[in-house]
């Protein structure tokens, strides 16, 4: 079921489940640094529509996509914890400086399929929940990005093509990995990527086909190389005081709506890559999928340092998460 179909089903049901106990009007601003056409924005819209249904319109969410409310992902944990925002959908890689557990989803070549990414999230869910709780927040759900590849003005299919390339990375793991591969990585928030492409500050971007298509990267770049580097996560989190101020019935409704948003994104990500590739090819981009296994092996080796550093930082907690992931 696509987004329009899902929203239509939700719309038909609006009001049917409403009960008199949902009387108060609650208005939340919800931040998301990514475009309103992104897969994560779709999940947010499903969440707010379902929440309106379940509460008879008592809880209303105003979405702020594309960073339009003024917060980048790296700022959103503090903003929600402090109450400047009641709720946000955040790419968690930039939060690795707050707690290294947030760098788990982007460990290179650890989770390369939706099934692996969800299994990895479930193995670490309690760890994420604990960090959010320590920062006066509650984790509602997580949603994946499709696998990361390399957007550039040329095919990037070997280490020679990567050498010295000014490439945007989205967190410390990517920076370490690409440094080890002799590229020239620059870590940037999403809102800064297109301006840097426009001025030549970066020549290439490590991100998914999804993210690049939403930002119309074909206006600056004409090749995408499928390396399936990682499937990073966005997480939706709510201020704990806001959560505690809800009635039990409203809390139940929030969690049910969160499940609807989460399920939609995890289901959609399975077919999203093919849809992205079709759109990119329609824009006359070259999509390279038959990547030399030797290049992928070299990138895997380059990522070893990032994996080792993550385990040092997380200690027994990180080892337990990886052991649980590998054993399932």
From TrEMBL:
Pfam families registered for this protein in UniProt: DctP
Signal among keywords: yes
InterPro entries the record matches: DctP_fam, TRAP_DctP_sf
CDD domains reported for this sequence: PBP2_TRAP_BpDctp6_7
Keyword Zinc: no
Protein keywords: Signal
GO biological process: transmembrane transport
Protein name: C4-dicarboxylate ABC transporter substrate-binding protein
Residues of the signal peptide: 1-23
NCBIfam families the record matches: TRAP_S1 (NF037995)
Gene3D superfamilies: Bacterial extracellular solute-binding protein, family 7
């Amino acid at each position: 079921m696509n987004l329009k179909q899902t929203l239509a089903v939700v719309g038909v049901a609006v009001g049917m489940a409403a009960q008199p106990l949902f009387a108060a009007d609650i208005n939340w601003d919800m931040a998301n640094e990514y475009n309103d056409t992104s897969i994560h924005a779709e999940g947010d819209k499903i969440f707010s529509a379902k929440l309106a249904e379940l509460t008879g319109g008592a809880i209303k969410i105003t979405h702020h996509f594309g960073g339009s409310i003024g917060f980048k992902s790296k700022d959103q944990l503090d903003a929600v914890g402090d109450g400047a925002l009641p709720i946000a959908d955040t790419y968690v890689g930039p939060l690795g400086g707050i707690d290294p557990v947030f760098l788990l989803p982007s460990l290179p070549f650890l989770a390369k399929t939706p099934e692996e990414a969800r299994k990895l999230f479930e193995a670490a869910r309690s760890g994420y929940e604990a960090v959010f709780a320590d920062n006066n927040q509650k984790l509602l759900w997580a949603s994946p990005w499709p696998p990361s590849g390399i957007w550039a003005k040329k095919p990037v299919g070997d280490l020679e093509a990567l050498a010295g390339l000014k490439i945007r990375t989205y967190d410390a793991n990517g920076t370490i990995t690409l440094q080890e591969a002799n590229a020239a990585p620059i870590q940037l928030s999403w809102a800064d990527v297109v301006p840097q492409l426009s001025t030549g500050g970066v020549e290439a971007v490590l991100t998914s086909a999804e993210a690049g298509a939403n930002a119309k990267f074909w206006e600056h770049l004409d090749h995408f190389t499928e390396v399936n580097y990682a499937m990073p996560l966005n997480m939706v989190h709510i201020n704990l005081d806001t959560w505690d101020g809800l009635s039990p019935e409203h809390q139940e409704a929030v969690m049910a709506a969160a499940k609807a948003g989460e399920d939609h994104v995890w289901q959609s990500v399975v077919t999203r890559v093919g849809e992205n590739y079709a759109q990119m090819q329609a824009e006359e981009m070259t999509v390279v999928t038959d990547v030399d296994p030797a290049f992928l092996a070299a990138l895997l080796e380059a990522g070893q340092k990032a994996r080792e550093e993550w385990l040092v930082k997380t200690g027994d907690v990180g080892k337990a998460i990886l052991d649980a992931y590998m054993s399932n």
